[in-house]
Amino acid sequence: MSQRLKLEVKHLNAIGGQDLVILVSDKLAPPKIAEEWLGEGTHALLARAAAADRFKGKALAGLTLLAPDGAGYERLIVLGVGPDGERDKLDFAKLGGAIAGRLGHGRSADIIAALPDSQIGPEQVAELALGLRLRSYVFDRYKTKTKEADQAEPFTVTLRVADPAAVKKAVKAREAIAAGVEIARDLVNEPPNVLYPEEFAERAARLEKLGVGIEILDEKQLRKIGMRALLGVGQGSRRESRVVVMRWNGAKASVQPVAFVGKGVTFDTGGISLKPGAGMEDMKGDMAGAACVTGLMHALAARKAKVNAIGVIGLVENMPDGNAQRPGDIVTSLSGQTIEIINTDAEGRLVLADVLWYTQDKFKPRFMVNLATLTGAILVALAQENAGLFSNSDELSERLAAAGKATGESVWRMPLGAAYDKMIDSKFADMKNSAGRYGGSITAAQFLQRHVNDTPWAHLDIAGTGMGSPNSETNRSWGSGWGVRLLDRLVSDHYES
Ligand code: BES
Ligand code: MN
Ligand code: ZN
């Protein structure tokens, strides 16, 4: 990752960049405070440009025009914030993202952080700054040509605000979250020859310097514990499997922890039930759940969240091989239940079955949320707009839905129930790992639920939202880092002492 954004926060009493960014309402009125910098003739120019471009000041819409002679800046970038009456609907992170989308490489810009009709509070300016930063992320580690290199030239942005000290403080508080999202994106974007289970475990272990306790379980230990469902998935790979336990103790030792669990299939070929070749390269992202958990643990530790949190990730590579698992195999999971393998490509649920059981048994958490790029079927149902939410708890579901609304990382609740559960009964074992295409996301979730006791639990199927360039105002990266902001928000809204 390279950080293209150089952000400064300064007082409104001066401007100095090449571009000037202002926010206008649906009446195309700029904030009073911006007037003194706009220069003679700018209003007329703006009105003409808006008419030509049919720009009506709608929220997040934008317009770029050349400044009139002698204005003291080169371009005027205008972002709409909609009608004055609808200000509470405005998402400042998205607005920051929309602004970043209009900035130029190697250029400098001043953003007048004021609304046409009012000031913007420090928290909202900080959200805007977060959006600027998230949208500016590029993964260019493997680009060596100079042509691409100047794409990575930074842009310098100065936020012009009424109260720089307060804004700086609020911006700083969000740096932990931004860094957490970037860590998750990097992990998802990394190629699978670089990021295999052991390497992933080592990257997670970097959180140690923030005070996160790290435990890496190797295959010998996993065998001893009894994670045979997870090990079965990894047995066809030359790369050894790993489980990593991350612990952040930000509250008193007596406070029950919250737990986050991630699917970390560093590459999913499908195994013996081999996937078709076209598009298989995307299966490097099949560890987006584990990436999110790692980024989240970073965020919580870096902002010293007053919570005890556990992150557990199951890291395996699913490969076809002479030693690979076969359709027809029966494995015994950590829960003691037996599983008939119907399709070796339904591997994520096998990994999670053991890791979920382990987490609830060992840590007795207040709740468990798992994230997994679990099924293609969730893309069929929800596209890349929502993650699928499956849960045994209405309270946890409602809290996740609210956090989703607040962060823009939205979830849509899907059904669970006895009729769906029956679909994974097996002729030869306690259950089977695949029930075919119908309701594919639901039967996968039922499988997970068979490995959850009465711990409040939610499963987020992020096959659509976590990878494959789910573009939004705050994301242009292939690996989106989806879920870090959502779960950080869940924690800060409800579980910090
Ligand atoms: N990792 C895939 C799901 C996936 C698909 C993630 C597309 C991201 C984008 C998962 O392991 C898988 O292969 N699921 C199968 C399940 C089936 C064999 C029951 C699927 O969705 O087809
Ligand atoms: Mn698979
Ligand atoms: Zn998979």
How would you explain this protein's 3D organization?
The chain has helices at residues 32-38, 42-53, 92-100, 122-136, 146-151, 164-189, 197-205, 219-225, 228-234, 288-302, 348-363, 377-382, 394-407, 418-422, 440-449, 484-494, and strands at 2-3, 5-11, 19-24, 62-66, 75-80, 108-112, 137-138, 155-161, 213-217, 242-249, 258-268, 308-318, 330-332, 338-340, 368-372, 387-391, 411-413, 431-432, 457-461. By secondary structure, the chain is of the alpha/beta class. An eight-stranded mixed β-sheet has the order 9-10-12-11-15-19-16-17, with helices on both faces. The model has no long low-confidence stretch (mean pLDDT 96). It binds ligand BES, manganese (II) ion (MN) and zinc ion. Zinc ion binds next to strand 11. Manganese (II) ion is lined by residues 268, 270, 345, 347.
Describe the structure in brief:
With 497 residues, the protein is α/β, with parallel strands linked by helices.
Q: Key features?
A:
497 residues, alpha/beta, 8-stranded mixed β-sheet, 6-stranded mixed β-sheet, 19 strands, 20% strand, elongated, binds ligand BES, binds manganese (II) ion, binds zinc ion
State the shape. Answer: elongated
Please tell me how large the radius of gyration is: 24 Å
Q: What percent of the residues sit in helical stretches (DSSP H or I)? A: 25-40%
Task: Tell me the number of strands.
Answer: 19
Strand order of the largest sheet: 9-10-12-11-15-19-16-17
Individual helix count: 16
Which molecules are bound besides the chains?
Answer: ligand BES, manganese (II) ion, zinc ion
Hey, roughly how much beta strand do the residues contain? Answer: 15-25%
How far is it from the N-terminal to the C-terminal residue, by CA? 34 Å
Q: Taking all residues together, what is the mean pLDDT?
A: 96
Q: Can you summarize the main beta sheet?
A: 8 strands, mixed
Please state the structural category.
alpha/beta
Low-confidence stretches: none
